[in-house]
Amino acid sequence: MAMSRSLFELVRLAQQHRGLSSGWLSGTVSFVGSIMEKRQEIAHLQPQVLATHEVWGAVLGSALPRADIETLFQRWELMVRGLEGKSVEQSLVLHTFLIGDICGWLEHLGADCVLPVLDDEIQRRAARNYFQRLPELAECLGQARAIGSAVATREGCSPMERVRLVRLVAHAEALLDHLRETEPGSDQGRTATRRAGELVTEIRSRMLMRTGVRVTAEAYFHLATVAIDAIFDWIDVCGGHLSQALGSVDEN
Hints:
Elements: H1 2-26, H2 32-60, H3 66-81, H4 88-114, H5 121-154, H6 159-182, H7 187-206, H8 217-251
Helix pairs in contact: 1-2, 1-4, 1-5, 1-8, 2-3, 3-4, 4-5, 5-6, 5-8, 6-7, 7-8
């Protein structure tokens, strides 16, 4: 579980960097300082991720080789050094491939290291939510944050951006419906659901026009980040419950 927590923090920061980069490459220069801060935070997180793997590598086995982590950080450095001059679309693709790799690691950790030791179906469902569905929800809204930051900067949504935002919102709502049915109620879950709903409403009502979008990039990024951070709070609570379940398994 320690490894998953480090990876979730890496996902959170990389998603924020992607959203800020979309706004910056579209013309929101006020995002530059925050972009530099996210790069520093990720640089500081790198040794923590590798140190956690050093402790748990034998348990993780082929689910997450150390070489894969080192390669991802190398790819990240190459990306950020070459980001200036890239298009918004290029930035989105580069960021999303890297984030997708980390989310894939999380899914493999759940499937290879956690699910096999859980016999109770409720606990197994919770593990799938933690390692797969909640990260997928955060990534849906993370992509919507990045696209919407560019839309808000230009004050207009292209047909392709509209299609993407509508699909992301629909998928996020489907995931939320599933999570409400399978995840025990918690304050964090209710807050995340409410915040995500507020973001979905903002996208549908104010972000899909070809021209005349009147939401600033800063305001949209903040609204989206509040919603996504609430999802990561939900993930953290679910991880705590799952750790307790794994502890019970170890005791038995």
